[in-house]
Design brief:
- The protein starts with 6 loop residues before the first helix and ends in a 9-residue tail after the last strand.
- The chain has a seven-stranded mixed sheet. The protein has a two-stranded antiparallel ribbon with strand order 1-2.
- It is globular and about 50 Å long.
- The chain has one domain: Vaccinia Virus protein VP39 (Rossmann fold).
- It is of the alpha/beta class.
- Strand 4, helix 7 and strand 5 form a beta-alpha-beta unit.
- Helices cover 35% and strands 23% of the residues.
Length: 251
């Protein structure tokens, strides 16, 4: 059935169509709709840090980490059906039995690594790519290893699409690190191991730091901070209880 429209109605519909096309052609506007949620997420993280959960060394986040959290679009790193929940301060499933870590955990682990703009960092457990994206905002070069091939391929495509140029990914067993690019100024492990992998200790640069959750799937895990002195001496400190998916591989 054909309906005839008056001129005002025609102009109104034309205006709506133009507005719709404007939003489609301007992804920045769509991205800005998440800005308030990102701000609320950061405020929630800062409140938890001030509450002093665990031995975190300081009661605030470095400004550069706050800026990185405010810049990386977390909604792009979760499944489409969960994007509305992307900035809630909790972990979310990303498929294959894996999760994207709680933003608070991402923030404090990044804070504890104390990385600088000239550093090279290794992450074990790429997942969706969110943690390595945050780290890449702070360092010269970021490397990440994912053992689950579909997740690794998805993360690589996602990070390339979002324009991250200082990240290098590979699919493999992170227990053995990435000797080709070692030593690293910092190493972050985002899956729980039964023990600290010796290859990662070896690949940590003197003066470097490593964070790793240690424990089993069915017991309390502890987030450990490993520091290697300039003389190669290694010290370990327990920081706080955590819950991570298990580190997998032939080891």
């Amino acid at each position: 059935m054909y309906l005839s429209l008056s001129l005002p109605n025609q102009l109104f519909l034309t205006g709506l169509a133009s507005l719709f096309l404007f939003f489609l052609s301007n992804p920045t506007i769509a991205e800005d709709s998440y800005a308030a949620k990102r701000t609320a997420m950061i405020q929630a993280i800062e409140a938890d840090v001030r509450a002093g959960y665990g031995n975190l060394e300081k009661d605030d986040l470095d400004e550069n980490i706050i800026n990185a959290l405010g810049k990386v679009p977390r909604h792009e790193f979760v499944p489409k059906g969960l994007q509305s929940s992307a900035y809630e301060n909790r972990p979310l499933p990303i498929g294959h039995g894996q999760t994207i870590s709680q933003p608070y955990i991402v923030a404090i682990m990044t804070n504890l690594l104390k990385v600088g703009k000239n550093d090279r960092v290794l992450e074990i457990g790429t997942g969706s790519g969110y943690q390595i994206a945050v780290l890449s905002e702070l360092v010269k070069k970021a490397y990440s290893i994912e053992i689950i091939a579909p997740l690794g391929k998805q993360a690589k495509a996602r990070l390339e699409q979002l324009g991250y140029e200082n990240i290098e990914l590979k699919i493999g067993d992170g227990y053995y690190g990435w000797e080709e690019h070692a030593p690293f100024d910092a190493i972050m492990v985002t899956a729980a191991a039964s023990h600290i992998p010796p290859p990662l200790i070896k690949q940590l640069k003197p003066g470097g730091r490593m964070l790793i959750p240690v424990g089993s799937r069915f017991a309390i895990q502890e987030l450990l901070l490993i520091e290697k002195s300039e003389h190669g001496e290694v010290s370990t400190r327990q920081l706080l209880p955590v819950a991570f998916v298990p580190l997998t591989g032939k080891h």
